[in-house]
Amino acid sequence: MSDQIQFIVEKLNQEPFRKNYNLITFDSLESMQLLQLLNDVLGEIDPKHAVDIREELPEQTAKRMLGLLGILKYKPPGSISDLSAFRQGLVTGSKPVIHPVLHWLLQRTNELKKRAYLARFLVKLEVPAEFLQDDTVADINKQYEELMEAFKNLHKECEQLKTSGLSAAEIRRDISAMEEEKDQLIKRVERLKKRVETVQNHQRMLEIARQLRLEKEREESLAQQKQEQKNQLFHAEQRLQRAQLQLKEMHHAVVDSKPESLMKKLEEEINFNSYLVTEKIPRELDSKKNSTYFLQKVVAEPAMSQSDLNVLEIKINEVNAQINQLIEKRMMKYEPIDSKFSMYRQQASIISRKKEAKAEELQAAKEEMSSTERQMLQKTNQAHELEGSEVLKGDEFKHYVNKLRSKNTFYKKKRLEIAEITAEYGVLQRTEELLKQRHEAIQQQLQAIEDKKGISGYSYTQEELERVSAVKSEMDEMKGRTLDNMSEMVKKLNTMVAEKKASLAPVIKELRQLRQKCQELTQECDEKKIQYDSCAAGLESNRSTLEQEVKGLLEERVQEESNYRYINCMKRNLEIQLQRAKEEVKAYVSPDPQERRKAIREQYTRMILEQENLGKKLREKQKVVRESHGPNMKQIKMWQDFERLMECKRECFLKQQNQTAIGQVIQEGGKDRLVL
Fold first, then answer.
1. Residue 207: enclosing H or E segment and its boundaries?
2. IFT81 calponin homology domain spans which residues (predicted)?
3. Tell me, what DSSP letter sits at residue 63?
4. Is the peptide bond before 77 cis (omega within 30 degrees of 0)?
5. Is 172 helix (H, G, I), strand (E, B) or coil?
6. At residue 76, what are phi and psi to the nearest 5 degrees?
7. pTM surpassing 0.85?
8. Residue pair 69/101 in contact by the 8 Å Cβ criterion
């Protein structure tokens, strides 16, 4: 308990409460202060409850708090018999009741905030069945349920986005990086524009380049369409091959079988399919519906914590134990008369289970057969793609094996040739290394000679000049080739543009005609729209008048229903009173004294006699009290005077003791002075 109170004080001293309590001040809080503190914590969880409890009645406060605690799934400690004590303690602000509630709320504040927020939208408003018979109420209730489902989906998406790892800081960084890249690209484009402006006919060349880019994009889209059409053609060929294979199998089945066997096979298939349709699939469908219903019920409830799950597991274990006990009791009360029926039931259940198992095996075998057929078809298609012919059989396969053997011998010969070439390559690589070493040695000797003669670097500069001249000649040739290519490209682009213009000329003519038609149709559409708006306005006015009439009739119907129910209630009350009057007359007239004693008149007469006797006794007591009142008051006054006298004596005695003590102190002080 002390750990619990310490935890509560620590949480209350933190944000957002900041109460500055310690263990003593918290323990010394009164009941109203404790209730206000509990209400503040509940107001932090749900802002609707942030009120002053002094402004509402205690019953309203208790009802409001119990409602929120029920939504938050708080379970008070103790058994069911303690629930009334819990409610009473919550009304009076009892510490043993308030402290566990505060501890439970402060332990899981964030989780409870989320649960309270979801409860505002997911706690379903129960509408009575008689009100749902009204179409308007039923439609509104349906819209309400659809909005609730939409809220569930949006909340799930929001939670997934929160947990997906995309934070606002990362998005801002990405946006800033994109803006920087955009600025860099804009600057780069401006530099390129400045460079291109110096070239002659740059506008025309840019236009041609733009047209080239558009044509390339169109070419890519056409290539993509071509690939899609190829895929569609491939799938269509696969479907055709499957259909041909099925047709071939059907032909084989028809050729090799007789009408009796075909009829028998069809009967077996019909029996199996009828079993699936009538027994197995409806049972599975019912089980799926039940599981879906329970899952929807679980989803509709607010989120559950681990403690709630533990409580549910305990309840499930208790219910399973009760079921097992009931089964044992039933087996103990087993009667031999039902033994035959139980045996037949067991046999029937065993047969039904075997039937279900065999049906599942048959279905699995059919699925496996269909999957193997699909695999076989895929393998045949792969073989067609690789070889371009069907799977080999018989003599063709032998011929193919002989061909592979001849290719194997040819492969071995080529492999020997490759080995000889690799060996020769190794020798050549070694000679290349030796020549490089000799070249380096000669270069060193040449450099030494140049240093002696005073012309160091002559050979290097000569080689560099030769290399630069060769590179320059190559660049000149490349420039010439690029200019020729550019001129050819410009010519090709001009021809392509002319061809495109020629091909687009009829399309443009058709487009002009279509534009004229479009204008005519838009005018007609505008006219029709004006007619529609006028008609809709008239219908809307009629609808509003009809809605007002319907509303008035509905209100009249509600009023008449309330009058009818009130008259029925009055009629029932009058019938009950009439029945009671008849029974009273019957009992009063009855000659039987026992029946007469049951009459209300007799009961009231007995009660009147009892009350009269009680009044006589009370009057006698009153008379005795009046007679003894004077002496008793005198005695009380004497005792009060005696008490004041004793109090006065006590005060005099205390004063006398104080005066004697002061005199002793004065005498001791005089003696000390004399000694000095």
1. helix 202-256
2. 3-126
3. H
4. no
5. helix
6. -65, 145
7. no
8. yes
